[in-house]
Amino acid sequence: MSRYGKETKLEPEEVLRRAEAFFGDDGLGLKIVEQSECCLSFEGSGGHVTISAARCDPEKTEVDLETREWDYQVKSFMQNL
């Protein structure tokens, strides 16, 4: 299991919207198994991706990602934040 973190100027809601588009049905096809105001969890192909996004100050959002088997795709997603 790997963990990654990144700060972005995007709003947390936008980060999660992009994550759903990238990892979900219209992207890599992973199934959403948990969804809340701050987090999304996906599963598929023997692995998982969990993303949380929260404002750490008025201009930055802290994004935490945990994955198993989807490291390359998580790194690609992070580059676009």
Which helices and strands appear, and what pairs or packs with what?
Layout: E1 2-8, H1 12-23, E2 31-35, E3 39-44, E4 47-57, E5 60-68, H2 71-79
Antiparallel strand pairs: 1-5, 2-3, 3-4, 4-5
What does this structure look like?
With 81 residues, this protein is of the alpha+beta class. The chain has a single domain, classed as Kinase associated domain 1, KA1 (TATA-Binding Protein). The protein has 2 helices and 5 strands. The chain has a 5-stranded antiparallel beta sheet with strand order 1-5-4-3-2, covered by helices on one side. Strand 4 (47-57) and strand 5 form a beta hairpin. The two termini are 22 Å apart.
Outline:
It is built from two helices and five strands. With 81 residues, it is an alpha+beta fold.
The count of β-strands is: 5
Largest sheet: spatial strand order? 1-5-4-3-2
What gross morphology would you assign? globular
Percent range of helical residues: 25-40%
Q: What would CATH call the architecture?
A: 2-Layer Sandwich
Number of self-contained structural domains: 1
Number of helices: 2
Strand content: over 45%
Secondary-structure-based class equals alpha+beta
Question: Element order, helices and strands?
Answer: EHEEEEH
The CATH class label is Alpha Beta
CATH topology: TATA-Binding Protein
Instruction: Tell me the name of the CATH homologous superfamily.
Output: Kinase associated domain 1, KA1
For the record, give the distance between the C-alpha atoms at the N and C termini, rounded to a whole number. 22 Å
The largest sheet is:
5 strands, antiparallel
Low confidence ranges: none
- Average pLDDT confidence is 97
Rg from C-alpha positions?
12 Å
